[in-house]
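Rotation project, supervised by the postdoc (A.L.). Task for the rotation student: set up a whole-complex structure prediction and record inputs and outputs verbatim in this book. Inputs entered:
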Amino acid sequence: SQTIHQWPATLVQPVGSPLSLECTVEGTSNPNLYWYRQAAGRGLQLLFYSVGIGQISSEVPQNLSASRPQDRQFILSSKKLLLSDSGFYLCAWTANYGYTFGSGTRLTVV
Amino acid sequence: GDSVTQMEGPVTLSEEAFLTINCTYTATGYPSLFWYVQYPGEGLQLLLKATKADDKGSNKGFEATYRKETTSFHLEKGSVQVSDSAVYFCALEGDSSYKLIFGSGTRLLVRP
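Outputs recorded:
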């Protein structure tokens, strides 16, 4: 069966610190992978998507970057976090069966 | 570009009331349309979908009909329950796109 793992579930980081959120998918190959962010009181914003290893498309200019070092691994990073990076980050994938979302990471930058 | 517009919340209803959450979209071609639900403290779950005009998606008593003439995909339920309290997101995937585009979400609060 297809599953998606996202960790950590909760993260509190100081301003200026680095960030690395990881997402892995099991049970499928060559999925499309996505990072979304949900800021407090707001909707879901697509940050990055990837259709293959090393292929990253950025939807909005920001303080974050994404990488896909392996087919089923998608990483969201930042060199220096800003207060405005706080939010709920969701990883998702799709192949032939519709979109599946991870359980999310709640990031609080203090 | 493609976009989704949802009615703003929060929507507060009494149990067994009728629910409508409006959703309209802008897209070229024939997008697929979705409703996702986010229960408190959880991630997103697919509630229902429709892939072509006049299709009706349904699940758990919720329904939505793909109306191309009005570019709408309104969510309805005849009798809401307290357990339906959640945030509901309308979304589309363009027919030539790899991306799922979401509306801003509508928070539903059902009171006993």
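Student's summary: The CA atoms of residues 84 and 110 of chain B lie 7 Å apart.
Supervisor addendum: The longest strand of chain B covers residues 86-93.
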